[in-house]
Amino acid sequence: MPEPMPERKPKLLDAIDEDEWSALTAAWPRAKREHVHLVVDSPFLTGEHQRVVSDGRRAEICYIGYIGRPDTGLLLHIKSIYPDGAYRLPTGGVRQGEAVLETLAREIAEETGLRVGEGAQETHVRRLLGVLSYELAHRGLGVSYAFATYHFLVEFPAGAVLNPQDPEERIAGWQWRTPVELGRVADTLEATGKNAPYWADWGRWRALSHRFVARALG
């Protein structure tokens, strides 16, 4: 097992850069902001494929992609490392010194092969739905970690072909699910631990984002 992460004092909102948030909400004033306290334990945050806050990542982006209209289907993916059926909205970690919108464009390019821009054959960022911040209180380490997910609604070009560019993403499949189905997607993620205990807290955490998006689009 990897070594425990260095101790960090809990700061509930230090995952959010307030200047960046102000700039984002100037462009998208309807963006919501919510906060969740979640109690977790190993292997979440410490085990392989579970180290969400490793490498100094403070946040991630989540892109909610659609073609034509959101109500016809939102893009989910599954990775080869995930338990069976654990489809979810795609995300990507914000690197040190990287702006949230830079992360969004990079992740979409890496995972789908599509470019973000204003052209007819490019992906358009339509709306920031909001940010969900977390205090992840780890029982085993006795430490809390701050993290946040920025949720962006993006429109893919008509006839878009998804072509992952980074094999390290390990994308194994795609699904299109309507906004009203996101609650059932969240239910599936929350129940992941029944058959795959290693992924239990990961599934509980990932479900939160899907419920946030369902509320924002409802």
Strand and helix map with partners:
Elements: H1 18-27, E1 32-40, E2 60-66, E3 74-79, E4 91-93, H2 100-112, E5 124-138, E6 143-155, E7 171-177, H3 182-190, H4 192-195, H5 200-217
Parallel strand pairs: 1-5, 2-6
Antiparallel strand pairs: 2-4, 3-7, 5-6
Unreliable sequence segments: 1-13
The number of domains: 1
What fraction of residues sit in β-strands? 25-35%
Name of the CATH superfamily: Nucleoside Triphosphate Pyrophosphohydrolase
Approximate helicity band? 10-25%
- Widest sheet: strand order? 1-5-6-2-4
Q: In the CATH hierarchy, what is the architecture at level 2?
A: Alpha-Beta Complex
In round numbers, the mean pLDDT is: 93
Number of helices: 5
The computed structural class is alpha/beta
Count of DSSP strands: 7
- Shape annotation: globular
**Major sheet size, sense and barrel closure:** 5 strands, mixed
Through-space gap between termini: 41 Å
The helix-strand sequence is HEEEEHEEEHHH
**CATH class label:** Alpha Beta
- Would you tell me which CATH topology applies? Nucleoside Triphosphate Pyrophosphohydrolase
Radius of gyration: 17 Å
Question: Can you describe what's shown?
Answer:
By secondary structure, the protein is an alpha/beta fold. The chain is built from five helices and seven strands; from the N terminus they run H-E-E-E-E-H-E-E-E-H-H-H. The protein has one domain (27-217): Nucleoside Triphosphate Pyrophosphohydrolase (Alpha-Beta Complex). It has helices spanning 18-27, 100-112, 182-190, 192-195, 200-217, and strands spanning 32-40, 60-66, 74-79, 91-93, 124-138, 143-155, 171-177. Strands 1-5-6-2-4 form a five-stranded mixed sheet. Strand 5 and strand 6 (143-155) form a beta hairpin. Helix 3 runs antiparallel to helix 5. The radius of gyration is 17 Å and the shape is globular.
